[in-house]
UniProtKB/TrEMBL annotation:
It comes from Oceanobacter antarcticus. Keywords: ATP-binding, Cell membrane, Ion transport, Membrane, Nucleotide-binding, Translocase, Transport, Zinc, Zinc transport. This is ATP-binding cassette domain-containing protein. InterPro entries: AAA+_ATPase, ABC_transporter-like_ATP-bd, ABC_transporter-like_CS, Metal_Ion_Import_ABC, P-loop_NTPase. Pfam families: ABC_tran. Signal peptide: none annotated.
Amino acid sequence: MSEATLLLKATGLNLKRRHKQVLTDINLELHAGQILTLIGPNGCGKSTLIRVLLGLESIDSGSVWHRKALTVGYMPQHLQLEPRLPLTVLGFLRLARGARDSAIHGWIQRLGIQLLTDQDIQDLSGGEWQRVLLARALLLKPDLLVLDEPVQGVDVQGQHELYRLIPTLRDELGCGVLMVSHDLHLVMAATDEVICMNGHICCSGHPDHVSGSEAYQQLFGQRTAPIAHYTHHHDHQHCLDGHIDHDQTAETSQP
Ligand SMILES: Nc1ncnc2c1ncn2[C@@H]1O[C@H](COP(=O)(O)OP(=O)(O)OP(=O)(O)O)[C@@H](O)[C@H]1O
């Protein structure tokens, strides 16, 4: 990918918290139009890496480069709000920098949260809150959309909808997407590149490549078996004269 589309680049990131080495020699690049997903077991450093990339946490060594004037829409894993704060969903969305009511109502419709507009944010369910946070991130018209476990608390139907929506948003906004997810089945189909981490980067690349790698199998073991992403194993050959030769045997069938 070209330098012109580069949004963010991390080089040699290292970070220790108390006595634990949380990040070790992390290198990555994210380009406009790319969906990059971080996966890995609990505590492997995914959220910490996101916060470091966004400049919310300091590092011991390494560097993070951002494109100039990069606008980031961040959907955090946790957002602590003052519990006594009386604020409706609409009021909360109006706090987004530069957000106009027309845009707010557009995203409210798009994300199917019309019935929540006047509801107090303290009364939202986990899945409802996730949608509201996504709306807030999108209101910023981000060059980079950062989603830290976007489907936590979202029902199965909602998870499918959200993972279908992410590539559409990427296409419409032309943004890059950096995502953390535990939903291996769904995320593998909705991402261009996966980084599988456990403090350091164990493996990375296209989902097909990563899910077949030894490091991935060691981290996720049996759970990797039914990954539901599309893989086409070509079981025939197209000859120059247009003839199809079926003598080639298929390795495996697609899921
Ligand atoms: N301020 C801190 N002090 C000590 N340890 C910390 C601190 N912040 C993070 N850690 C540790 O760093 C590790 C990485 O945490 P992080 O939240 O990045 O993991 P994660 O991969 O996002 O996990 P999960 O999948 O459970 O959300 C964890 O072991 C955590 O306990």
